[in-house]
Design a protein that fits this description.
The complex is a heterodimer of chains A (419) and B (396). Helix content of chain A is 24%, strand content 12%. Chain A has 419 residues and is α/β, with parallel strands linked by helices. Chain A has a domain at 43-55 and 133-378 and 405-413: Alkaline Phosphatase, subunit A. In chain A, strand 2 (72-74) and strand 3 form a beta hairpin. Chain B folds into two domains: 14-50; 67-378, Alkaline Phosphatase, subunit A (3-Layer(aba) Sandwich). Chain B has helices at residues 14-30, 38-50, 78-82, 89-95, 112-121, 127-130, 164-170, 217-220, 223-228, 234-238, 271-287, 290-295, 358-368; strands at 4-5, 67-73, 100-102, 105-107, 140-145, 149-153, 175-179, 229-231, 248-252, 296-302, 335-336, 339-342, 350-352, 356-357. In chain B, helix 1 packs across helix 2 (38-50) and helix 5 (112-121) runs parallel beside helix 13. Classes of the chains: A alpha/beta (419), B alpha/beta (396). Strand 4 (84-86) of chain A pairs antiparallel with strand 1 of chain B, so a sheet runs across the interface.
């Protein structure tokens, strides 16, 4: 896999060079970082959604390197199929696209990024896309704030490995499983420094994968809304959506077959809570997606320095938006980031030692901020209308391995009290 | 999904698509094995999807294989066979790095016999085949149900039940079963007699229940059986030239060398260790043969997982059968076993994550020789080997 990554690196090196038609690339506007204490950032909030690629979800974003209509991919029966606008909000009738460690490498195809229809049971859904009219939150918030169009999933693998990277800068597994982890995390670094970190979960706490170690810093989502309202936010907050009931369309995490309108409502709710908080003036809020979900993307990821070469290949690009009084407005950032770039920002701000070679080498996502202008506290209000969810999707194809119930069971067995 | 903007080829009125599809199916039948140009394949596939039959039906992905070899090993789940700690390092390491590993390949039943029967006929299990036919009884039934399933119970299917062996013979192609330790060709009990090969004996570790050809009266009642269902010893000579190599070779090691027994009755260790030693001898013999090097495909798989208790999961839409509501005794399938495909048409060290089972294997063999699908191989939308497996770039 390292060889494939190297091949991809050669291809992906085109980034930064001229010649992305239709994308207004702005070279070299990354900031010279100030002294951390002078950054004006006292709170970092990370909201990680599920399973969407950049082209599939935000390929329409003005000024970004997105591609949607007009691409074709050959399926396993040598039928060429075209990318197409998706006509519903769930993808009912289609299998959940393959987004496994192995399937991602089939899709990557040594950097050709053309195997979307030759992995797992992925069908035409995997090369479908949404446009701005489908996305009531991103249609408004994306162009208003800073969108990153070279933000990759940290590793070419499914949900748990990527979420481990967000917490720990590494993963100890290539597939979802509920074995208890011993990886050191950013929570340990914060705690060692006497700082506060809180993990807010919708229904199932990812931190339960460390047993009960993080029980005391894990809180239900309602506490996040309350902490925003009071302004009593910790230095670092991770916020997760509700993971259950993806099939019924109500989960709000954007994982197929969740209704993406539910996800948009959730994003708007968190955005409103953050921007109305008394702490807003000194907050950096990052919205990202754990991995690409098996959906097409035209940019080949490259490898990053990693303690385990088997995990060094990043996953495909995912949507990422940076929101802050320090954020550039109506801006697209083109440098390469992944989940560990957010860890890097946290470690920079509070002078914490890095966790692994990965976050050590990562670009600091705080560099997309504008530290030369005064903070701009204005935050537009976004109307995201409620919707009536359709009927739950009937199962299609071989059921995908559903790990959330297993994690819920593990948490309950370990003594967690869940909402 | 009801709206698909901007996707060429799917905007034509439904009626036209159906007419085009019908014409193309006729065309494909008339030009066996011929590559279909992508636009035609798309129209054909699109129409099939519109008709609710699931996946595409194009054959444009086929590389032009003419010789298929299948080696069935016994009773190992995916992790024990293919995982990093596999007791078969030659299989899981050396050979795996030469081919494409199908990580989502499943057995269709427990115990052994219905898996072998599935591979050559598409017939689902019944209680007696699930019990490995301790008595070699005739299949007694009444009628059929879709897709091509004979309703009833028993071991030896009546002459009307078709097999891929018969399909190959009828279309002027050749097949052989190579059964280690069988000795005399087409060896099986008399109808109604107890099967005395259920336990291995020193010098005779042949198991009738791992030789599917003798469970079809259409074969046992024909001179083809003595000609084509032969001892493994015949394989060496048959591999010497393309002309003597059958189009389909189904290969079953004995109860020691297929990993079934451990330890073996003759003192060998058995299990994956003995299977690995057997593969070291026979796989190079196959892969160095003129037929394989020209246009061969070798599939190495396991009939079922370790046991119904460890894994009886299914894939690929397998559900309750007309004769056995639970094909896997405790579940719907034979569990995840994996399969390795070696071929000049395959890129070394690659992976396919597409779900397959033994019915998919039959359908893929039938695709190779442009034969109609038998039994559950005709399951709508069933995955068949495509560019995920034939990923090597070389096509004839």
């Amino acid at each position: 896999m390292a060889a494939g990554g190297a091949a991809g690196a050669a291809k992906g090196a085109g980034f930064g060079a001229a010649g992305h038609p239709g994308s207004a690339r702005q070279p070299g506007v990354t900031a010279t970082l100030p002294a951390p204490a002078d950054s004006g950032i006292d709170h970092v909030i990370v909201l990680m959604m599920e399973n969407r690629s950049f082209d599939h979800f935000l390929g329409w974003m003005p000024g970004a390197d997105g591609k949607q209509a007009g691409l074709t991919y050959t399926d396993r029966y040598r039928v060429r199929r075209a990318t197409h606008h998706l006509g519903d909000f769930q993808g009912c009738g289609h299998p959940d696209p393959d987004h496994s460690y192995e399937g991602g490498r089939i899709q990557f195809n040594s950097g050709k990024c053309d195997g979307w229809l030759r992995s797992g049971e992925s069908d035409a859904f995997a090369i479908g896309y949404y446009d701005s009219t489908d996305l009531d939150f991103f249609r408004q918030a994306g162009p208003d704030w800073t969108v990153c169009d070279r933000y990759f999933a940290a590793t070419m693998a499914e949900t748990y490995p990527n979420r481990f990277y967000q917490h720990a800068g590494a993963t100890d597994r290539t597939h979802n499983s509920t074995v208890t982890s011993t990886l050191p995390t950013i929570w340990d670094r914060l705690s060692d420094a006497g700082l506060r970190g809180k993990y807010y979960y919708g229904d199932i706490p990812f931190t339960a994968l460390w047993g009960t170690k993080y029980l005391d810093i894990s809180h239900p989502y309602a506490d996040f809304l309350a902490d925003c309202a009071s302004g009593n936010l910790p230095e670092v907050s991770f916020v997760d959506p509700r993971f259950s009931d993806e099939g019924s369309g109500t989960s709000g995490d954007d994982h197929p077959h969740a209704d993406i309108r539910s996800g948009e409502l959730f994003l708007a709710e968190v955005y409103a809570a953050v921007t109305k908080s008394p702490a807003w003036g000194r907050t950096l809020f990052v919205i990202n997606y754990d991995e690409w979900g098996g959906f097409f993307d035209h940019v080949a990821p490259v490898t990053a320095p990693d303690a385990d070469p088997g995990n060094a290949l990043r996953g495909f690009r995912v949507p990422a938006v940076v929101i802050s009084p320090r954020a550039r407005r109506r801006h697209v950032a083109h440098e390469t980031y992944d989940h560990t770039s957010v860890l890097k920002a946290i470690e920079w701000r509070w002078n914490l030692p890095p966790l692994t070679p990965r976050d050590t080498a990562a670009r600091n996502i705080a560099e997309v901020l504008d530290f030369t202008s005064p903070p701009n506290l204005l935050a537009p209000k976004y109307l995201v209308p409620p919707f009536v969810a359709g009927a739950p999707c009937a199962p299609v194809g071989t059921p995908s391995v559903e790990e959330w119930p297993a994690l819920r069971d593990k948490a309950l067995a370990d003594g967690w009290m869940l909402p | 999904m009801s709206v698909t903007r901007g996707a060429p080829g799917i905007r034509r009125p439904l009626g036209l698509r159906w007419m085009a599809a019908a014409a193309l199916i006729l065309l494909a039948t008339a030009t066996l094995g011929q590559m279909i140009d992508p636009p035609e394949a798309e129209a054909r596939s699109g129409a099939a999807a519109g008709g609710g039959t699931g996946g595409g039906t194009g054959t444009g992905a086929l590389p032009g294989a003419r010789h298929v070899f299948v080696i069935n090993l016994e009773n190992k789940g995916y992790d024990s066979a293919w995982g990093p700690a596999s007791a078969a390092p030659y299989l899981a390491g050396t050979l795996r790095n030469q081919g494409v590993l199908l990580t989502q390949y499943f057995g269709v039943a427990h115990n052994s016999l219905p898996n072998y029967i599935a591979q050559i006929s598409g017939q689902g299990p019944n209680p007696q085949t699930q019990a490995d036919c301790q008595t070699y009884s005739p299949f007694v039934g009444a009628g059929t149900t879709s897709p091509g399933q004979y309703v009833g119970n028993g071991c030896v299917y009546p002459a009307a039940v078709p097999t891929v062996a018969g399909q190959l013979t009828d279309s002027g192609r050749t097949w052989k079963g190579y059964m280690e330790d069988m000795g005399s060709s087409c060896r099986h009990p008399s109808l109604g007699a107890v099967d005395d090969t259920q336990k291995a004996r020193v010098g005779d570790q042949y198991a009738v229940r791992h030789n599917p050809f003798v469970y079809f009266a259409s074969i046992t009642g024909s001179p083809d059986c003595a000609r084509n269902d032969v001892d493994l010893n015949a394989l060496t000579a048959d591999l010497a030239s393309t002309a003597t190599t059958p189009n389909l070779s189904m290969i079953t090691p004995n109860l020691c060398h297929d990993g079934h027994d451990a330890p073996c009755v003759d003192g060998q260790p058995g299990g994956l260790a003995s299977a690995d030693e057997w593969l070291k001898r026979w796989v190079p013999a196959i892969t160095s043969s003129p037929a394989f090097k020209r246009d061969g495909v070798l599939v190495i798989t396991f009939d079922e997982s370790d046991s119904p208790q460890t894994d009886s999961s299914a894939c690929c839409g397998e559900g309750p059968g007309p004769n056995s509501p639970l094909p896997g005794i405790t579940g719907l399938g034979g569990g995840r076993v994996g399969a390795l495909v070696l071929s000049p048409f395959v890129a070394a060290g690659t992976t396919s994550t597409t779900p397959y089972n033994h019915y998919s294997l039959l359908a893929s063999i039938e695709d190779t020789f442009a034969l109609p699908y038998l039994g559950y191989a005709a399951t709508p939308g069933l995955n068949r080997f495509g560019l995920d497996v034939y990923n090597g770039g070389r096509h004839r």
